[in-house]
Amino acid sequence: MWTTKTFLTKTKRGNILKIVREHYLRDDLLCGSAACNVCPHKDSEISLDAEPESICTLYDYPHYLVLDSNVVLHQIDVLEEDALKNVIILQTVLDEVKHQNTAILQRLLEIIGSKKRKFYTFVNEHHKDTYVERQPGEKQNDRNDRAIRKAASWYETHLSFGTVDGKFPKVVLLTDDENNRKLAQEEGIVCSTVKDYIENVTGFVGLVDKLSKNVIPETCSKDALYPAHLTPSAIQAGIRNGKMYQGTFHASRENFLEGTASVNGFEKPILLQGHIGINRAVDGDVVAIELLPEEEWRKPSDIVLEDKADDPGDLLEEESELLKTAKPADKGDDDITPTGKVVGIIRRKWRQYCGILLPSKFPGATQHLFTPAEKRIPRVRIETRQSEALSSQRILVALDSWPRNSRYPRGHFVRALGPIGDKNAENEVLLLEHDVPHARFSEAVLACLPPDDWTIPEEEIAKRQDLRPLCICSVDPPGCTDIDDALHARVIPVSSADGLKRYEVGVHIADVTHFVRPGSALDREAAARATTVYLVDRRIDMVPELLSSNLCSLRGGEERLAFSCVWEIDENAHVHTTKFHKSVIKSRSAMTYEEAQIAIDDDKRKDEVATSLRILNKLAKKMKKKRLDNGALLLASPEIRFQVDSETHDPIEVQNKKVMDTNSMVEEFMLLANTSVAERLARDYPQCALLRRHPAPPQAFFQNFLKAAKQQGFDLDVSTNKAFSKSLDLAVIPGRPYFNTLLRIMATRCMQQAVYFPSGSKTAEEFYHYGLACPIYTHFTSPIRRYADVIVHRLLAAAIGADVSHASLLDTKQADSLCDNLNYRHRQAQRAGRASVALNTHILFRDRVEIEAAVVLAVKRNALQLLIPKYGLEGPLYLPAEKFLYNEEEHLQTCGDVVLKTFDELTVRLSLDSSNLQHRKLVFQLVNPVIPGFSYEATQPEPMEVVEVTDKELQQKKRKEAAESKASKKKSRKSK
């Protein structure tokens, strides 16, 4: 049997088009219940128990639950618990959830896929007895509610047929829609709100805590603290007529009463200040902004707010303090920033947040404040009866709503992550907060892998260039197991017409795409993860370890599949020819940077590996000089390496990463490979080549940096990257070797992010990579750890005929979506890496206090932002207003004869403050210059914790000596 569905749609020209589609209905769709004597079920098709156990005291009889769409959308955390079983999910609900939130749909599908949960999907939209037509003038939501009621009623009737003594499972409809519930009751359907049902569930402690709190309508808030948000239609009208702007809200890490929103058409982000200006926007939300009159535009605040553990209640008293310091700027002031206010929320970007519960002042209280780990997120009011058990735990909380009459958003408890301070729990927090996918690879993904003992088939070798005889080697950091790249170089014996010596140079990259095929579960997982994430003590792989550390890793002495880029280069580092081919290689050696440097520097070594490395190093230096002469920037960032205890994996010491010529050597040839591949892809795929660009920073980004450099006597030219590079080279202070590095670190922070993009979305001029001074660039050299490189490999393979093309590669819309995810995951991976360094530094300082050199990165109204070069760590040194005078124009802090400015070198005392469990932080105390009554004076011995470090190191030394002694005795026995 069939019926018709009619749709009205609007064409681009404004015409109304009527679309009629056939909609087939069936009478043989199964209900899924073991209690049914009507449907011809097979055992594999039964999902619902014949006598489902009731766990809700409201209903003392067996029953199935039918959920409406909003229950799924808002109560997914409750549904993921094991409490609710024998649940009927209607197709109407699935379709609506898919339309509104794909992330929740995925979570629901995982629940349905779990056999023990007894969730059954009923295709009510294609059953002749449950399908309902949309009536004239009826809203889609009302039609869906009617379809859900129809299906619930049908189940009740259907199950009553063929049962003995009238005993059959009943149906309870869960809905929080008051109108839907009223109509259901009129139709004789048993129904309940989610809250009423869950509060009467027995045997599942803490389930009530997971209930999402109801949203209070904007117009119904009493005692409102905030202005009402505009309706979607009012926002759209405001944006269309130019009275409002759309932007993504970014909260400040230093000041929770301030944030910005990047808006098209404005060189500077729009400044949003105070509770009213931010108006309940949360970091990441897409908001509607109304600009304030120009006379009300302000400078960004220069106050660093300290963490406070107390609860000020539903008051907005900090507002006046912030606005006192954020005075309107003069019209000629370079720091003046367009200032606005949030008038509506276009799209919430809420997620689940990690943090801790603040202790309540009232014994037995159920209302508590949750403090998120991420400083940019406001505290959250939650209701829980488990506060005593959760007070020592890191927990996960979801946001539900933010009523106008509440200073804080409302949310609900999701789950506990582990004890506060436990390293595994803290790492879990770190990964969740940075949205790093880190679950174990699924069975579907692992099923895509070859066997552990896989070797290269002969037929595969026959398709490729056999480069196994070449002297190829890899050069990587110590301990690296995911080796993406290897190199070779040899002299071309034939003399050239120009009389210059020529070399064959090759970069060989792991052929990950041989194993990761398009559309497979492995490919989908790699695309979702997008990048490998490196933490201090672990690595979160993009692809399973069998590939990342074994079959794709270019280990020494083992045959591997590769994608090779081979050039003919003369002794002046000029490239004459470029070739790409799939290959088979056998690396002679997997070396560290230090081992490669030793081989280059050892004049006695005349072997092939050393000779090849010397050729590569010589050419790399010339290539680097050309790049720098062309305007490439040598920027810097604080990079450190932890020494980790082999047993506990806790950090025991830290040191700066050593940079050698071999680091630069590898980098130059990776840059050359990436550039060569980018040129080929842009030529063959002008619309869908995946490229990487680095936009030039607006001049406004350099203002504070240039002012600080001028205080040190340097007028830097930032008009072009070439001029900037030259002026950075000249900015040297004799006796301060770290100054130029610090200048480059600061310069890095003035840059915009480099981003992936499809070539068809930009003009050729916009391809430019500012930092590398390169007209076109991509990522080809790290497919084990970057999904962008996987796509680039597929495009290049299709371009040279080494593999077939795929429709998805040529889909420009899909390419845009892919690049958005790549850029997001790349940023989050970088932030997670920095957070891991901070976490391990805190662990390192649990038992120690140190006096260290520091440099001033920024001067604020109430603090100096400091960098500790040894640890690559930053933090504030708070300055009391009664002692220090702040010069707002020059960004100076003065106390008597002591004047502190950006780039100044100080000495500080470092210790860990654990009084705020949520935000443990390093405390900076000034040691030098000496300011009486403020600087730290060592009048007494440091705390005993310092001794504990010595004991720990002594124990480690003893263990090491014992191990060496045991090894020595064993060796002695063997020699006998």
TrEMBL record:
Signal peptide annotation: none
Keyword annotations for this protein? Cytoplasm, Endonuclease, Exonuclease, Exosome, Hydrolase, Nuclease, Nucleus, RNA-binding, rRNA processing
Q: Which SUPFAM superfamilies match?
A: Nucleic acid-binding proteins, PIN domain-like
| Biased composition annotated in UniProt, kind: Basic and acidic residues | 950-967
Domain PIN: where?
63-182
Q: Where is this region: Disordered?
A: 950-976
Instruction: List this protein's GO terms for biological process.
Output: CUT catabolic process; nuclear mRNA surveillance of mRNA 3'-end processing; rRNA catabolic process; rRNA processing
Cell location: Cytoplasm; Nucleus, Nucleolus
The residues covered by the RNB domain are: 464-802
What is this protein called in UniProt? Protein DIS3 homolog
